[in-house]
Amino acid sequence: MKGELAWGWLRSMAADWALITLNWLLLGALLVPLGRLFPDADSIQILEASPVSLLGFAVLHAALVTLVGHTEGLHVEHRALPEETRILGKSVLLATAVMCFAHGLQARSWAMAGLMFGAGVLHFVSLWLWRWRSADRELSATSFPTRNALIVGAGPVGRRVASYIGSHPTIRRRICGFLDDEKPLGNGVIGRISDLALMARRGFVDEVILAAPHDADLTRRVLRAAKRLRLDLEIVPELFGCKPEARQFERVGDMPVICLHAERLPETALILKRGLDILGAGLALVLLSPLLIAISLLIKLDSTGPVLYCARRAGRKGHTFRCYKFRTMVANADGLKDSLRGQNERSGPLFKIADDPRITRLGRLLRRYSLDELPQLWNVLKGDMSLVGPRPHPLDDVAAYEIEHLARLDVTPGITGLWQVMARRDPSFARGMELDRQYIQTWNLRLDLHILLRTVLAVVQGSGQ
Questions:
Q1: Is the pTM of the predicted complex or chain greater than 0.70?
Q2: What is the mean pLDDT of residues 111-125?
Q3: Which of 79, 151, 170, 358 is the most buried (most CB within 10 A)?
Q4: Domain 147-261 has CATH 3.40.50.720
């Protein structure tokens, strides 16, 4: 621990010195035009002619900043960014004031004192930005999505695993419950081991932890189910008091956990997909901003009500988010939905009417060319949606899902998808689900680009409803 603290202190001090020195070198490049503005400022002329003097000022200023910061605990204690900002401001202000006052008394060059004050401002900004970026990276390192876990076995071992995970949020796991064939339902036991598939789907489970008394048949059954459901499976082994080498196992507290199966994710491709989403949505919002403004004005002129229609939708793992669209219906459209359910033309839980009386005149044009979906580019930038993926469904439609339908919520929903380019007018909900599952199982970046290209062609042809 002492070694880690010493290394952190040394790294912070070295970074501060380096940034302050670089700032002074940058200011040194400005001394030539400053010398022309202040030809009588002897100190500027001296520094302009002597890089050694400039380096001396840099070293002295860095020493004063880091010395005051050290006495205030800036480099030793782990502090929140607001507290670091206060200490940093105090350190830079005091060190710069001493430099300005000392040089002003010695050389009576207030122009140089002004330059030092400007250097102090530059130091504060650069040092704060460095700390802000460091804090942002630390936050990102701990901001991975929480993984939902299901424990098979509600005995003492399973309870210890759940207790440890519950008291250590940095593990980024959430226990959905226990499955056990012997324990009564309740107190965390949500089903039997035969209910694994059902409970995994309902809880959007990412991994299963096998903590039941070891039985070869049970282990094989759980392993087959985990592979079929594409879930990670970990087992807490019985080691009869032996302590294995830590490097061979993952540990949950003092208990070793052996991973029997890990679902491999295309991490690089997923990062590229997110990059494509950010780049594509950002460029589209910028390039289409005149069109977005024009549509907003036309909506206000066409009918009363807000420009945007905002509704809760089901996203990845069932998390809800606010989905944005241009309003294409009358203002009280949601209130009229129940009275029109008898005219629904889609099978399954989806609701769709070709000649929906709630749609406005402008709304029909926007839907025909899918222009009403453009505000969802903001959802893409936020990370709620992707450019390509299964369409996000309303919460009342999701509530009517069968258990096998929940598989489409394993991925981030999209503005367009395979169903939109292959069966856009097909009223069959089963057909849409089949295409969504096909997309999830065969996904790759080439498929996304293919869908985007076909979407552009479909929009140009005006095939929307």
A1: no
A2: 70
A3: 151
A4: yes
User: pLDDT for 334-361, tens place per residue?
Assistant: 666 666 666 655 555 666 666 677 888 8
DSSP track, 82-128: HHHHHHHHHHHHHHHHHHHHHHHHHH--HHHHHHHHHHHHHHHHHHH
- In 3D space, the residue among 379, 403, 6 whose CA is nearest the CA of residue 191 turns out to be 403
Domain borders along the chain are 2-141, 147-261, 268-461
pLDDT, mean of residues 8-35: 64
**E-state strands within 253-319:** 255-261, 308-314
Higher model confidence: residue 76 or residue 5? 76
Mean pLDDT for the chain overall: 77
**What is the rounded distance in angstroms from the CA atom of residue 65 to the CA atom of residue 82?**
18
**Tokens read off for 44:** 């500027």
Q: Tokens standing for 189? A: 């036991």
Beta strands in 343-404 (DSSP E): 386-388
Cα 407 to Cα 205: distance, rounded to the nearest angstrom: 11
Q: Which of 413, 177, 431, 418 is nearest to 277 (CA)?
A: 413
Question: CA 208, 210, 215: angle at the middle one, nearest 5?
Answer: 140
